[in-house]
Amino acid sequence: MSFTVRSERVEDAAGIAAVHRAAFEQNGESALVDELRRAGLHLASFVSTEEGRIVAHALFSRVHVEAAEGLEPAVALGPTAVLPEYQRMGHGGAVIGAGLESVRAGAERLVLVLGDPAYYGRFGFDSAVAASITAPWSGRSWMGMVLHGDSIEGRACYPEPWSLV
What we know:
With 165 residues, this protein is an alpha+beta fold. 28% of the residues lie in helices and 35% in strands.
C-alpha cells in the first residue's frame, strides 16, 4: 500500500492525537503535541497518511541550549509516533526524514532527540554530539545531530510543555 507524507494541517489535530494515544497507550505525548502547538513552539510537523487516515506523526519544536555565549536555538525531535498496526512499514522514517529536511532548509543548527540509538542513528543522530549538552537525560539514548556549523556545548532548556511527559 502506498502512503503520503505531508505537513500537518489544522484539521489533523484529532488524528495526530489518536496516533500518539495508540502508540504510547497514554495521553502525555498527545497533550505535549497540543501544548507545543498552542505555545507556537512547533517548527515542523509531518504526518503520513494511508487512504486519508493519519498513521504516523513527527513533531520538531524549538528548544534552546544555554551556552557560554548565551541561549542558542536548537530543535527537539519528538514526540514521534506510528499507529501500532502500521509500524515497520516506513511511515516513521518518512515523517522524520521530511521533518529533518524542513529544519535543515530553515538553517537550524542542531537537533536533539531522546530515543533508541539503533533507530535514530540511521538518520545521523549520535550520542557523541549530545554528550556536551547536559539535560535530565544522558547516555546512548540522548543524541544530537549537527545540521549546520559546529556543535553546541551547554545545558538543554526545554520549554514548560515538556513537563507533561
